[in-house]
Design a protein that fits this description.
With about 180 residues, this protein is mainly β. The relative contact order is 0.15. It contains no helices and eight strands. The protein has one domain: Porin. An eight-stranded antiparallel β-sheet has the order 1-2-3-4-5-6-7-8, with no helix packed on it. The protein is globular and about 55 Å long. A hairpin with a 2-residue loop joins strand 6 and strand 7.
Length: about 180
Amino acid sequence: LRVRLTGSMYKKDRSASNTLTSGDRAGSKYYDVLENTTSTESAQAWSGAIQSGMKNDVRAFVVNPFLKYKGAEVFGNVETMTGAAATETSNRTLRQLVGEGLYRFANDQLYVGGRYNVVKGQLAGIANDITVRRTQLGGGWFVTPNVLSKIEIVNQRYLDFPSTDIRNGGQFKGFMVEGVVAF
């Protein structure tokens, strides 16, 4: 049995351009899924990502519980971020909850699992709370310790976005096949 509970806090009272939620070194897996038909990859660098817009004042807390017993793993992410852009007079809050369950077998070379992710809160320029929900089921094969191939079925819904936002009522679902190289 392996149990781990980790947490962290980030606080920045003032910044010209805080990038806590606007950087994504791994890239979004869902580029151009909910974009205008005339969009281009170079113009939509953050396609598929939820940007908080909290660039000046940020307070973020995250807790990650983890439990492993034999081949079964459960992982969670509980995150709260409060802050604002320099032009805003009041703070906004954004929360994310993630639950993931995996079962590893064949000497940890194969796995099956599922993940549920929900983000809820206020984004910059949107008066009400929005919600994004994603459910994923899939499996993978570690071809080598550094190379993973996987397949997932995903269902993502965008709720409570303004009628002028392309994500209003948006939803996508389908299969994703992906290869990952770690170094």
